[in-house]
Amino acid sequence: MRSLLASLSLFGFVAFAAGQAPPKPAPSPDVDKALETFKTGKFDEAFEQLKKACAANPQLQPPRIILAGWFVQAERGKEARATLERFTAEEPKHPDGYLLNASFAFGEGRITDAILSCQAALQFSADARWDAEVRKRYVREARLGLAASFEQRGDWASVKEQLMGLLNDDPKNGPLRQRLGAATFQTGKPEEAFADFQKAFQDDPAVDPPELRLGALWAAKGERDKSEDWLKKAVAAHAANPKAHRAYAGYLLDEGKPGAAQLYIDAAAKLDSKSRDTATLQALLFRHKKEYGPAEVAFEQLHKDAPGDSFALGNLAIVLVESADEKKKKRAVELAESLVKQNSRAADAYAVLGYCYFKLGRIDDADKALGAAASAGQVGLDTAYYLALVLNEKKKYAEGFKILDEAVKARGPFVYRADARTFLADLAKRVPEKKDEPKK
Fold first, then answer.
1. Is 386 contained in some domain?
2. Which pick of 173, 304, 385, 416 has the fewest CB atoms within 10 Å?
3. pTM for the whole thing?
């Protein structure tokens, strides 16, 4: 499963995200009535009701834009696109049409189209028919979309240009300032980035501490030693902030040091006992220590509180499959299969399913699931361990040894690192060229 440290958001927030629904219209009884009509499938009637509502309240978005947004939320993409195209034909210089089109394009990975649409929205926002407040909203949304799109391209100079434009209008916005710092870091200027993070924290103490933000960025670059240095500084400088303790604890768990991590998890629990993030770390600590009973209770509660949380679901499946209870093992497989259905493109989901199949002796099924996990991209370290177990069952010892040897030498989150080292030594006895090597 994913690294606790790597799961930290690096950019504060992103306005455009894959699958993000368009902004909801302002509360209005007339709009609510139109929405109820829409839900019955009477789309033309709903549109007429929206026209009346928008005529009575000029602050609302145009009726076709609202309607297109409802089609998106209803997962009726064809109708959403047709509605948007008709709106743009009727209002070729209206920013709302281009902003919604940019959202569609960004969600589908069409970054160039998203940039062009945002640039058009920015251009048409200058039209004299818009009052200052409406113009400000259009400019903000267009710049946010451009920043997100340029981030996807890795064009950090353009990201900074858009964020600085936003900060000119909103200089005390901490999340925006943090995002600027992240872009500055990507241009190879960590000192300037840290200054941005300090300014962001000064303006908005709710954002992550500056040392923590820099630690997360170094971790994302694979510079784990530098990351740890900054995480230690975060704990020292912000001893009363549970975020700092949680982040360093996550790093230590990723490094396979549960004993050291517990000190910081306990500190975070004292500072913020009701936090889900703290509870997640406590549950993961149990798993690292192979205390599967308490881990099961903890992940069960996390799953109950948030059924859509893939991290809790995947970990619950794994701790259940480690049980000696056959009923729990079968439930683990059911949960893992559910995880794959919810996340059909996620390598981690297939890895969990493969391990659960393996623990039930379904070797061929495990092989297929882990093959899907490996084909999805870079193989995680725990996934490498699962693969080696299956390859061993198939008597493919050399192949399993190679995969596991690379995993054991790598740094990063690896719950089964100790087990992997033991198993690697066992595999070496079955690989002729390794077995015959002189001992060092």
1. yes
2. 304
3. 0.81
